[in-house]
Amino acid sequence: MKLYRIKKSNIDKKGRGLYATKDIKEGTKIINYVGKVITKKQTEVSEKFDNSKPIYLFNLNSRYDLDGDVPWNTARLINHSCSNNCDYMGKGLKLWVTAIKDIKKGEELTCDYGFGFDVDYKQFPCKCRSKNCVGYIVREGSRWRINKKFKKSQRINR
Length: 158
Ligand SMILES: [Zn+2]
Fold this sequence. Notes:
The strands form four sheets. A three-stranded antiparallel β-sheet has the order 3-9-8, with no helix packed on it. A three-stranded antiparallel β-sheet has the order 4-6-5. A two-stranded antiparallel ribbon has the order 1-2. The protein is built from two helices and ten strands. By secondary structure, it is mainly β. The radius of gyration is 16 Å and the shape is globular. It has a domain of 110 residues: SET domain (Beta-clip-like), CATH 2.170.270. It binds zinc ion.
C-alpha cells in the first residue's frame, strides 16, 4: 500500500497535494522524486528555468541537476509549508521525500522548497497558514530576512 494519495490540496486551493494514507514514522521514505537528469549546461541554456523560480529543479552534484517537472513525477505535487513534515533527501542521482516528523494519517505532506531570499520573494506567497508561516515561500534559513520573529533562531544558519 502506498503511503500517500493524491487529493485536492488544503494549501494550494487550485492545485493538488499528497496526503498520508496511514500514520508515518519520522525517517520513513515516502516517495521517490523522479525526473530528467540534465547537465548544468542544459539548465543554463534552458529557457524553462529563466524567468521563474526553479521549483522542480534540484542540484544533484557539480555536473547534474534533476528536472522534476515531468508528469510521471507524483512527488512534484507536494506543496511547500513553513512547517513542513517532509524533506527532500538524496544520494547519488536519486532523490526521495522523507518524513522529518511523525505524520498522522490524513495529513497533507509538505516540504520546504528551499528558495533562497531574493528581491522577488513577494512573487511567491505562502498559504500554508501554519503557526510559523512567514507569508512567502522562502527557505527556513532565510526567513529572518523577511520577518524579525525568525531572527534569533535562524541567524546562525543564514
Ligand atoms: Zn507558510
